[in-house]
C-alpha cells in the first residue's frame, strides 16, 4: 500500500465518529490451536485474575528485579544507546532494596535447606566419617551441577550473579512509549523472526500492507509446520503484540516544561492492529496475544505444587509479611488453575521420543538465542522490559517442559530436587504474565475508546 493511501486511511479512521476498530470485529470466537474463545479469556482475566495480580506485583518481592543493562550485544555492534531521556532507567540505591532481597541468596528461600545445614553440622560434631572432597573434585561437581541446571534453561540467567547487575524498581520504571523506534528496532525484531523462528529466508514474513502474495505464502508455510514450531512463532508474535499494546496504552501525549501526560493513543493502536491498515495482519497479532496468554496461564497452573511446598518462602526478611504474600500468590495460582479451558500442552511433543527430544532442544536453544538478542536493544528501558518478559516466557516454557519433575516434588526424597526456580525466574514469570494480563485488559479499554469515537 502506498504511503499516501495509508495516510488517508488513518485520517478516515480518526474521523469515524463511533466506528469500531476492524481488528475487534475479527477478534472473536475460538482461538487457533486451543479450545478456548476470546470472550472467555476476557471475562476471566478482567474480573478474576487481573486485579489480584496487580496487587501482588506491587509487593517488594516482585517489584525489585536485578538486571545487567550494560552487557554488550553478542551479535552485532550497537553504535550507541538511546539518547532519549525517557529511555533512561533509574537503578535502586542499596538502602531502597529490602535486606532479605539484596543479601546473598544461598539457603534463604528454603527452611528445609537451613535445617539440612544444621543437621550436617550436628553430625560433624558427633564424629561422623570424614567425607570431605578435594578442591578439584568439588569444582568438578559444581561444574556438573551448573551444566545440568543450564541444560534446562530457556534464557540467559547470568544477570543475578553478575557484579555489573543492579536492582531496578519496576514500579518506578514502567514500560511505556519512549520514542525508541526506527531501523534499530526493526533489526531486533527481524533478527528474532528471521533467524530464530525456524523460517527459511525464502519465505517472507508479511510486513508491508498490500503484500498479499507474500502473506499467503507465509501462512501456507506456517500452517505446514508441526504444531510445536507453529506455537513457537505464535508465542513470539504474541509477545511482540503485547509490547505494542503497552506502548500504545502508555503513550507520551503531552510533553511540556511543566508536565508530561501519558495515556492511550488510539491512532497508534490502529496503525499497529487495524485490519485495513495492516493488510489483515493486526487481528492475527492480537489472536497470538491470546495464545500467549493461555500458554503462560497454563504454566502458572502447572507450577502451583512448587510454591505450595512448606519450605518455599517469598523471602524479604519480614517473616509475617512474607507468609501473607505467599498466601496471596497461592490464591492467584489457584485462580489460574480454576480456568475452565486451559491450553492442552499434551498436544505438543507427542511423537517419537528421540524426535521430540531433539525438537525440544531446538526450541530451547532458539529461545535462548532470543534472550541474548535483548542485550542488543539500544533503549535501556526497552531492554529492561524486553529481558524481563523474555525471561518470564522462558520460565513458563521451562515449567511446561518439566511436568514430571514438578509432579515429583511431593514424593521425592532427594535433597537436591531436579526442579527449582530462582528468585529471578519467579519475579520475571509473574511480572511477564502481569504484562500479558494488562494487555488483555487494555484491549477492553481501547475498544471502549474506539466506540466513543476518540
TrEMBL record:
The active site is at residues 379, 382. One of its GO terms (biological process) is protein folding in endoplasmic reticulum. FAD binds at residues 176, 178, 189, 237, 240, 272. Keywords: Disulfide bond, Electron transport, Endoplasmic reticulum, FAD, Flavoprotein, Glycoprotein, Membrane, Oxidoreductase, Redox-active center, Signal, Transport. It is found in: Endoplasmic reticulum membrane. InterPro entries: Ero1, ERO1-like_sf. Residues 1-19 form the signal peptide. Disulfide bonds join 82-87, 379-382. GO terms for molecular function: FAD binding; protein-disulfide reductase activity; thiol oxidase activity. SUPFAM superfamilies: ERO1-like. It is a peripheral membrane protein. Its cofactor is FAD. The keyword Ligase does not apply. GO terms for cellular component: endoplasmic reticulum membrane. The keyword Electron transport applies. PANTHER family: ERO1-LIKE PROTEIN ALPHA (PTHR12613:SF1), ERO1-RELATED (PTHR12613). Belongs to the EROs family. This is ERO1-like protein alpha. It comes from Echeneis naucrates (Live sharksucker). The lineage of its organism: Eukaryota, Metazoa, Chordata, Craniata, Vertebrata.
